[in-house]
User: Fold this.
Amino acid sequence: MYLGSILDVCSHHLSVSRWVQFTSSVFYWVARFPLESLVLGGLLLLSFLILSGLVMRGFILLGRGRSIKRLWLWGFPLAFLISVSPLVIGEPLLTQFLPTYQGQTADAIVILGRGRFLQSSRVLKAVELIARDRAPRVFVSGYSDAPLMAHLLEQYGVESGKISGESCSRTTEQNAQYTAQQLMPNGVQSIILISDPTHLLRSQLVFRSLGFKVLPYPSPLPDTTALSYRRLLVLRESMGLVSYGLMGRYWSRPLASVETTVAQ
Assistant:
């Protein structure tokens, strides 16, 4: 296949923000060492309570205790709820509200990358849809995943002329932005979106905010997927769902130019 169809639409100096690197490291550590993470989280919470108590005492001595007390009484529960949102949301709620795919057709199939060991299962889902004439083309999206998934599609018998994509995006926001930049000028309005079940809710909301009609199509994780990795995905998606909402990425918005530095 001519890999030029996997478009390099980003800057050659694209870099990942330090925040993305930090949160990725934290999520990986929590998933790998859950007990140690619980102990560390408890110590941090205790330190926060002690420090906030000392700060409040200082404001009381300065005669401003009432206002800081109100701030603490509202701010601490809010911070606590945000911090435990992964436990509150969890995998069931991340997947419960996804509409069931009922065989509708669309203008294109979009496969989102999520790492090498998930590529084959996602490609097979797209191959099945192409064989059933659910869409005339496939678009692959992901920084390192796109070329490999395109090659797999061709190996499984999909015509190279039906395959395109971009190999720049490193976040769900950029998946949506780059995909929209390439597909919408070509008249693509409806897409069948393939990703793992926990990722699809956030992905659907982001793609829809840019004007796509989205049909989510889950590609379940392999049975051999380690529990630690499943835990990592649930944690990342729970936090991502909340943070993207706070950043306004679920509301209808015009397609903006993609920044050269990866967003959260």
Q: What stands out?
A: Confidence is low (pLDDT under 50) at residues 11-15, 260-264. The beta strands are 6-7, 15-16, 108-112, 138-141, 163-166, 190-195, 213-218, 261-262.
